[in-house]
Amino acid sequence: MSLHVPADLLERAERGPVDDAAFVACVRESLPYAWEVISGVAAELEAGGDFADHEIPPPTETDRGQLLRALASDAIRGGLERHFGVKLAFQNCHRVAAFRPSAVDGERYRAFVSPRGQLLNQSPELRNC
Questions:
Q1: Is residue 88 part of a domain?
Q2: Residue 45 burial (C-beta neighbours within 10 Å; 0-12, 13-18, 19+)
Q3: Residues 6 or more apart from 5 whose CB is under 8 A from it?
Q4: Which residue has the higher pLDDT, 107 or 34?
Q5: N or C: which end of the chain has fewer CB within 10 A?
Q6: In whole angstroms, what is the distance from residue 25 CA to residue 4 CA?
């Protein structure tokens, strides 16, 4: 299960749309490692520049799973991007980058999300991640 959804939030979702604040709070509580990584790159980006990334492999498989669930889900990823005001990019099942939305058409973003960028960030120790 990706998220631990409190009963009251599930009831609200059954009745209709749920606001981003409630959804993002559920993500923060359910996926604390992913939240830590993504909030970290968002804070680094806020401090300056158009790009920030986190390249440290997760300490456990549980943490890796959280990161994968957060970034593989369109709803979760989109909620996090709206919450932090960033565009997220992902490589190697652990490298998370945050870009300012204005940088998405830029050279660094295009290089990061390109097939070449993915290939250049591979290494033997990451093949089974």
A1: yes
A2: buried
A3: 13, 26, 30
A4: 34
A5: N
A6: 11
